[in-house]
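Could you help me review a protein record that somebody else here produced? This is what I was given.
***
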Amino acid sequence: MHEEFKKAIEQKKRLLILFSGGLDSAVLARTALEVLGKEAQAVTIDSPVFPRAEIDHARQMAASLGIKQEILAIDEMADSNFIANTPQRCYVCRKLRDRAVRLWATQRAFEVIADGLNFSDLDDYRPGLKAADEDGIWHPFIDFRIRKEDIRNYAVNTGIPGWNKPPTVCLASRFPYGFPLERKLVRKVEQAEEYLKGMGFAAVRVRCFPHGAALVEVDDLDGAFAKREKIIQGVRDAGFLFVSLNLEEFVSGMMNRLVKHFY
């Protein structure tokens, strides 16, 4: 990261980083650690809508970076506004998370909390960003107009692992807006996606629709067709009744199309 970016971090004196273990938060944590040393810490949210494998990955990433990490458990599924799954779901979720993190941070004298949202994130529908702004969360990558490709290039050049790992998105994003969330359905999605990753697909989404329907999205359509029978079996074993394959190229955030057409 350039010197002005580092100076901005240095001016904060102490910094708590919302750390998912993904590339953006990892680069921010690495930079903050270089600048602030032990005055930079990471907090990771452990939630029913965050895959168990990703919690393990976040622990491993924090350990590899050498940054002190706190795992903070939050249950968004206990909130009626969240499970209603309106287009404001991410706003509701972010308010719940920020409230819990802010309480934890205040008790430990962290005045500044930062996340890894980057300038490229502004290209998509991001109600969670509005909530974070209201809650006083700092977005250093946005402030300095640093885009996803800049972060990836920095990670490659500095040897930060995970630069080619597909982004991880909350499991609630697999459900179309207006379709209420249920714990058992979230677990079905997680099980089906873990199965597909075990088959060798790197980027995976299992979209959950009413009546037990699953729409499978992967980054290798030719490979998916070749493994069609195994995909059907694994997704049905996870609890789905109907399995279909999205013929479009894999695109993260695809469900946000619904916002433009129906809300």
In short: The chain has two domains: 3-158, 171-262. The chain has a mean pLDDT of 93. The CA atoms of residues 101 and 107 lie 10 Å apart. The beta strands are 15-18, 40-46, 68-73, 113-114, 204-209, 213-218, 242-245.
